[in-house]
Specification:
mainly alpha; about 80% helix; Methane Monooxygenase Hydroxylase, Chain G, domain 1; 14 helices; about 300 residues; single chain
Length: about 300
């Protein structure tokens, strides 16, 4: 009889522990929904509540001699607290976001994603030397970390180190994954996701094209910008880069044809009308250039 009581007591305890785990999962999931709805303060609160429940569960699991399960629960708590940095960054509380990330790195120093997050927030705060150091840490851990390579390349490009920036972009392109990454890792970069599932290299290719342009490799820049537009035909800066590359190559007809193609895709786009007007002016088509600029004045 005592033996049966122990069995029933053990089953009841396991059920209670499982219920506590599911409770934390539910609260964390609600936090994500609140984040998507823009209720950031409530989302922050939910993440902390979930973390507290997971930590408590971890302690109970240790008491019940379940060390592996306890470790998983404490890891879930750590991840929940770490997720707060994305919300804090989103609402401009960067110092607090950095505090959260720094604390999370102390718990998981070999997590490349956390080093990347630190670099991204530091980069947003224009603390570029520190950001570069954080990206390098991420890449020491995970050399094929596409987002870290891309962001490192952007800092190098900004500093006019175009050769090394290009190297970063080419490696980032090689290792780029699909458009959608699991939350929260990719929340920083993909702020305006394309609705189609595809290789996420458009921004990388655009940056690569700019580097090639700065290095005077205009034919290669043309190819890069064309690849961008094959993925994102409404990406106006890529149209501008493509047109300017054609002009550098002396291919004026191709530059004009590209302007017309761009305006077929994005009819009436002021930036593209100005681009065509500029090309017309540079190629001696002054009357057409003036007519295009006049059309913009009439619309306003």
């Amino acid at each position: 009889m005592n033996f049966l009581k122990k069995i029933y007591a053990g089953a009841s305890k396991r059920k209670a522990l499982k219920q506590q785990y599911l409770e934390a999962e539910g609260i964390f999931g609600q936090g994500y929904v609140l984040f998507e709805m823009g209720n950031f303060d409530e989302a922050l609160s939910n993440y902390e509540k979930a973390a507290v429940i997971w930590d408590d569960l971890g302690s109970k699991l240790i008491e019940n001699e379940m060390p592996d399960e306890a470790k998983k629960a404490h890891t879930k708590a750590s991840d929940a607290r770490y997720s707060r940095c994305f919300l804090l960054h989103k609402i401009g509380r960067e110092d607090e976001a950095l505090e959260v990330i720094t604390s999370s790195i102390e718990e998981a120093p070999d997590d490349a994603g956390r080093w990347f997050s630190k670099g991204f927030v530091l980069n947003s705060a224009k603390r570029y030397d520190e950001a570069l150091e954080a990206f390098n840490h991420a890449l020491e851990i995970s050399p094929d970390f596409s987002e870290a390579l891309y962001c490192k390349g952007n800092i190098l490009y900004m500093r006019e180190n175009y050769d090394d920036a290009l190297d970063c972009y080419e490696k980032a392109e090689e290792h780029a994954g699909v458009m959608y990454f699991s939350f929260p890792r990719y929340s920083f970069l993909n702020l305006r996701p394309d609705p189609q599932l595809k290789n996420d290299s458009s921004e990388i290719l655009y940056a690569k094209g700019n580097s090639l342009y700065q290095l005077g490799r205009y034919e290669d820049a043309v190819e890069a910008f064309r690849q961008v537009l094959g993925r994102k035909p409404r990406f106006v800066p890529a149209w501008q880069g493509l047109v300017n590359s054609y002009l550098k190559l002396g291919q004026e007809d191709d530059a004009l044809m590209t302007c017309d193609h761009a305006l077929e895709v994005e009819a009436g786009k002021p930036e593209l009308i100005k681009l065509k007007a500029s090309v017309c002016a540079k190629t001696g088509r002054n009357a057409e250039s003036e007519e295009l600029l006049a059309s913009l004045v009439e619309e306003t």
